[in-house]
Write a structure and sequence with these properties.
By secondary structure, the chain is α+β, with helices and mostly antiparallel strands. It folds into two domains: 72 residues, no CATH class; 61 residues, OB fold (Dihydrolipoamide Acetyltransferase, E2P), CATH 2.40.50. Helix content is 46%, strand content 22%. The chain contains four helices and five strands; from the N terminus they run ααααβββββ. A five-stranded mixed beta barrel has the order 1-2-3-5-4. Helix 1 packs antiparallel against helix 2 and helix 2 packs antiparallel against helix 3. The protein is rod-shaped, with a radius of gyration of 29 Å.
């Protein structure tokens, strides 16, 4: 079997394995194998040279492009959830379970039930407003009439 074909198939297998193995690493090894396959067709027939080129291309691609390509495969993640939670502040919610001052109850926001607390007593079925978000607990206050 021709060595260029072997390198091409190795590259193809590595790229396809990227689907099953997360991390965005194998795709760069697959591209490096394709580079070696192309160079083999151009006359680089020494196995030692091919292995060195494969290693060098793998490292160069991995460290040179991974940070840019990773977001394409995995999307962008942020550690700052404040933007999402700030969206809840000022929203009107319905009390599902009465809230005693300093105690906890349940409210409904955007179709989901949330644990809620308040400094004032709030009866079941009353409407109130979100003051702030603390993890998965909403701090609410009664709506002014």
């Amino acid at each position: 079997m021709d060595t260029a074909l072997v390198w091409f198939l190795v590259g193809l297998v590595l790229i396809l394995l990227e689907i099953a193995v997360p991390g965005v690493i194998l795709v760069f090894l697959g591209v490096a194998a394709w580079i070696v396959a192309g160079l083999d067709l151009l006359g680089v027939n020494s196995l030692t040279a091919q292995l060195w080129i494969f290693a060098g291309a793998s490292v160069a691609l991995l460290f040179g492009l991974r940070r840019f390509v990773k977001s394409w495969f995995l999307g962008r993640a942020t550690n700052d959830s404040d933007d999402l939670m700030d969206e809840f502040v000022g929203k009107s919610v319905v009390v599902l379970e009465a809230i005693e001052p300093g105690g906890y109850g349940q409210v409904e926001l955007k179709g989901a039930q949330w644990k809620a607390t308040s400094t004032a007593a709030i009866a079941k079925d009353a409407r109130c407003e979100v003051e702030k978000v603390d993890g998965l607990c909403l701090h609410v206050r009664p709506l002014s009439k």
